[in-house]
């Protein structure tokens, strides 16, 4: 799930299924049209993903907002992967609208591994450190000319103040059931520590569904549609949303970021948990449950 993906329910026509993928391949990449196509579940919110043969995946954006991310990935992923310690997706082909499907779509190389389970990341210091080392390497990649935060990534990497009114609305809606004073304090601390350094690369969607593991070891990171160059603090939110305190300390120990970045990272985590818990952002039931748990963790950590 993209960090703010739930802000817009996916609406797409025609149905994003194996038949559509086969028709698109047949008209644009006929040499692959005969390969087996299997839907990958869970299918995701921003994209529907299909395995193509044994070595490729097809990803179809589910709404216009997500289609903006396709060309960015094709331009920047080959550059980023040369500097990163773990595999990331390799773009293979860029598809065009067709057969009633209105947006660009993409084919990538298949990456080995399974999505990390929430309890794995929550409890494993090794996974937390490996993720921190990956993000640190990403932040050190030359950001000159990189894509700034914008509509294509819901302005992740920009200022938290974009979501100030929405966050305070959520606190007001939830105040009977949460420590509203603690929430306001955490949010104000995040706003009081604006990013003042040069732009850095950020992933923008650091979540358990986008982290691949093999034999308990972090083996790859996928879905860079929300990536940008700006303030990387949004990538720290997973330290509260998916890690216990000791695991978060292991994550933090390998990242060379100042106290302000961590205050903003906690702010991003708070914002997401609040807007989902308050029903401002539509979400799957599992995401709602996770957000309620994350909100309790964030507020108790205060």
Short note summarizing the structure:
The protein is of the alpha+beta class and 302 residues long. The protein contains 11 helices and 10 strands. Helix 5 packs parallel to helix 9 (245-253), helix 6 (164-174) runs antiparallel to helix 7 and helix 6 crosses helix 10 (259-277).
Care to describe what's here?
The protein has helices at residues 18-28, 64-67, 69-81, 118-123, 125-140, 164-174, 180-191, 238-241, 245-253, 259-277, 285-301; strands at 37-39, 47-52, 56-61, 91-95, 105-109, 114-115, 200-202, 211-214, 217-221, 228-230. The protein has 302 residues and is α+β, with helices and mostly antiparallel strands. The chain has two domains: 5-109, 2-Layer Sandwich (Phosphorylase Kinase, domain 1); 114-301, Aminoglycoside 3'-phosphotransferase, Chain: A, domain 2 (Alpha-Beta Complex). The strands form three sheets. Strands 1-2-3-5-4 form a five-stranded antiparallel β-sheet, with helices on both faces. Strands 6-8-9 form a three-stranded antiparallel β-sheet, covered by helices on one side. Strands 7-10 form a two-stranded antiparallel ribbon. Strand 2 (47-52) and strand 3 form a beta hairpin. Helix 6 runs antiparallel to helix 7. The longest helix has 19 residues, at 259-277. The chain starts with 17 loop residues before the first helix and ends with a helix. Mean pLDDT is 92; it is low at 3-12.
